[in-house]
Protein 1
Amino acid sequence: MFNKEMVFKKIINDPYQVVDEMVEGIVLAHGDLLKFANNNKRAVVRKDAPIKDKVGVLIGGGSGHEPAFLGYVGKGLADGAAIGNVFASPSPDPIVDATKEINGGKGVVYMYGNYAGDIMNFDMAAEMCQMEDIPVKTVLVTDDIASAPIENKSERRGVAGDFYVFKIAGAAADVGMELDEVCRLAEKANDMTISMGVALGPCSLPHTLEPSFVLEDNEMEIGLGIHGEAGVRKGNLQTADEITTELMEKILNEMNGSKKVSVLINGLGSTPLMELYIMYKKTHEILNKNQIEIHSSFVGEYVTSLEMNGASITIIKLDEELQPLLERETLCSMFRV
Amino acid sequence: MKKNLNTKEFLKILLEISNEIENSKDYLSKLDRAIGDGDHGVTMSIGWIAVKEKISLIEDNLTFDKICIQVASSFLSAVGASAGPLYATALMRGGAKLKDCSDINCSQLADFFDAAANGIQERGKANLYDKTMLDVWLPAAKRIKETSTQTEDIIETLNQGSIVAHESMLLTKDMLSKKGRSSKLGERSKGHIDPGAASSELIFRTFYATCKNL
């Protein structure tokens, strides 16, 4: 019943207006914190931007991952976000508009998940900004274990690990570090961040209302991407403890003796908090058993995929340099510390 | 035999491509759902609707290069994604070969496609057989170039390009993806036509079909 005649219902007006209408809603709801850059509805920045003598942090990607990316714009995190159509990279326009608006004179770092489309558009925008003497550097997030082996970490795609990498870099910029140092810490955070996910049911683009992938009634898919890209294996749906154990096995393989971590259990859109906390319980037990200290935990929706049913586990390995940056005060419309 | 193409005819071709993309958007999205994230038809539709709107505002007497820049910019702004930079770069590089031209011959048209294909390769950094749109663009542009050295007939030249584009698109079905989201699938990317190759084939096919009926 679930797949064969799957019907997607959405509270929308016009599928071609969903992104603009959402962004307008976000800026209206959080007008105390956010504004448009150059009246561009795909470029949202901190209300107090630019912050003089601070490195600007620009994040972005396709829409449909809310609260990523707009929800992470604010003090202590990103200065701005450029967003595209649903699951599609922003074009260079909003990236350039946001860059100019958040440049406080110390340059801007671009951070986004490792996808070919995002790379081309952000690179084109970076070239344009550099022609106007704004220094721009780029750090790609590559946390998804399922998308490439560890030897090819730089080929991995970015999923929920965005959250930790953005947070660390945003804090480093907020502390007042220079562009190269912010980039070094962002790259370090990315090296320390690993994710693995599972999907139980697809999402659908508002324009097509077609399922992004097909699973049988009793199936799940391990390692599926946050846009419905196929994963590493399909199998029968298992219990929360079995799923969590399988995901954590892959993650523990890449722990390299790290003794302190922060954990994110991320819901992909329609998985209830109940199920996320059941996964958290098992994750906590597994980390305890392996004598790994849990510095902090985040459970909820941080990087979603429309109404996809599923979840991911992300771990960031912490040291004395990253920990205070993770703890640093943050005030965004959809996240605060 | 058709020896020349003017800007008015070129705009007509672009409009026909826009219509054809709209008709094929569900098919393109379906191809993309199989190995990607399912947005290619939607993205192309959004982009070519923007192109259509732009064309209705384009003044008379614009030369090929100016038309290409305006159309490329509106396409890129509207879509982003992967398709945006790739197709926009193709148009801009192709247009740059036709600077100040308002009427072109067969060999200039071949230069246009050649520069466009090279622009896609440079922007996307893909190679032949990576299962991308380049697997249509490089061989089709090559055949157009070869044919243009043997005939002055634009229609026959485009016909050859369209035939090769179609054959090349079908060949992507058995290729292993090495670029973009689908590259993460490994062996599972086989058995599906690449959606970018399919939209590219549509462009060569519609370019030819519209030209034939001008």
Note: The longest strand of chain B covers residues 4-6.
Protein 2
Amino acid sequence: MDYLPNIIFLLILGVGIGYFTKNIRIVIRNIKLGLEVDASDHRKERWNNVIRIALGQSKMVVRPVSGFMHLIVYVGFVIINIEVLEIIIDGIFGTHRIFSFLGGFYGFLIGCFELLAALVFIAVIVFWVRRNVLKLARFWKPEMKGWPKKDADFILYFEMVLMTLFLVMNATDVHFQAMNNGNWVSQFIAVAFEGVSVNSLHQIERTSWWLHIIGILVFLNYLYYSKHLHILLAFPNVYFGRVNPTGQFKNLASVTKEVKLMMDPAADPYAAPPEGAEAPAKFGASDVADLSQIQLLNAYTCTECGRCTSECPANQTGKKLSPRKIMMDTRDRLEEVGKNIDKNGSFQPDGKQLLDDYITREELWACTTCNACVEACPVSIDPLSIIMDMRQYLVMEQSAAPNELNVTMTNIENNAAPWPFNQMDRANWINES
Amino acid sequence: MNEVLKVPTMAQYMAEGKQPEVLFWVGCAGSFDDRAKKITKAFAKLLNRCQVDFAVLGTEEGCTGDPAKRAGNEFLFQMQALMNIQVLDGYEVKKIVTTCPHCFNTLKNEYPELGGSYEVMHHTQFLKALLNEGRLKVEGGMFKGKRITYHDPCYLGRANNEYEAPRDLLRKLEVELVEMKRCKSRGLCCGAGGAQMFKEPEKGNKDINIERTEEALETEPTIIAAGCPFCNTMMTDGVKAKEKENDIQVMDVAEMIANAADL
């Protein structure tokens, strides 16, 4: 019976990690529903971006207050998780603080963890206040109603509880407090437990220990259902992010083929496509499967911070467009398609698509393509590319551009300018006084 | 000081068997829009003054396809692009300068993949280079000490990371350069990009150019400097809507330099 806790621990650990792995596989499968893209170029620049933007948080600190707070939580998250290694070893082998033989160094490590835990706790409180008391505009946009709002708060509560458990666990660890080695913060919490019997302290310490590790595993599994996936996906997402100038929009190769054929005087206009020829690709995107795998990864990576939306000129002037909503809608639709596949084995038409059922035309046509959203994103998400792909679908597959744009395009086609001026008058300015 | 403008075409150069140093890509706004034509002329005067050997395509130039592409009409964009590339390659053009950031971005970034690779410069970059080479002299003149704010065009700034060339030129004019709250990489769009210039905006509570003009007015400038014919139009409309057109001018950086030189 002595091994019962070890077995229970292993069981919990196995279920926690196993269930998470299963869900991550679904995420990967869903991302692969998108079109393949070749991102084998610019390797060095991509790694540089990962170091600078993802690891170095260079875009987070553009906004100093939230950037600094996030830096604390980020560093705290990464460093405190070293402690999880000890917890897992202790849990499996029934040991207690296995690394404590490291002596002074161990104390230093734990001391740092404690300090970070306290700082994370404070930062998370600040985040909560910004959201719920100061009510920063970007956290209260229409797309943040309901689950997204709750999700954001849950994450903050989770982190508060986990940090508290970690500190209480240390504070009630009689042996650890007696060592007086690394209890930088917990010694002050231990004061609150003065007069509590050693036995009760042990009970509290054990309870905190178990709740802490179970909490971590629950949080890990919560990621899949949450916007918080960014803590993992930010890194690959930044790697696959833009490496060209943001003004460079991609040229559709399928269109190049057609245009070249059209301009070729030797081409036979009546030629039938050769036998077994591929059907021409659909132009643009009306649903998630028309988007690239990178765009779908973007959608899973978005943590709904809303920096894109708060910088968007259309959104700032009261238009319906919100780049964050574009990303949230893409993820929602992708998950809907994923569930459809889980249920039916393969995707069965459900009479819905990303266009109109999630993202309206009014949103798409409000974009000025100014790239403010792309610039603002701390993890290199590109909402503009999705807007452009959907505009392409509207114009090239449906001829559904706003009428004024149809006039503009007709002008360009007929007289090589967006206005109805004759191309032969193009140089008149030279001789006008 | 009204020198006769010398603007040869590529066809004329070719007939003489010569290659100009650079092709001046005028763009649709620069060719047809009354306000933008003044920018075109100011820049051409500067080129003349600096004895830059340049030519235009004239009637052989056509829209780069930028508004078509941003509106989602990739087909029309590529038709324009391939036709322009044929013309440009026919004249063996190597270097292009343009007063329009949209033409600049499209020619520089989107044409190479379609077979048209050229060295492309925005006119502020080109003027800066002339200044560095000592071919262009810029003096404060009428602008010395005036409060001026510069509006970053999205397709020059964020899209292509050029924030300094226009500002360097303005500093040369000895102006008091005041920045708006949102500037450089966080600069607010004028509202014209992405083919918005050619359509009514979607429903909202304000027009983007008004929002941007209000921000510019907060700096209490005498002139709002711009580097894009479309930004120029949007900001000019904004200033008019605020009934400030008698106090505040919207000017292209090239116009300011030309004016300072009394051209």
Note: The domain at 10-131 of chain B is CATH 3.40.50 (Rossmann fold).
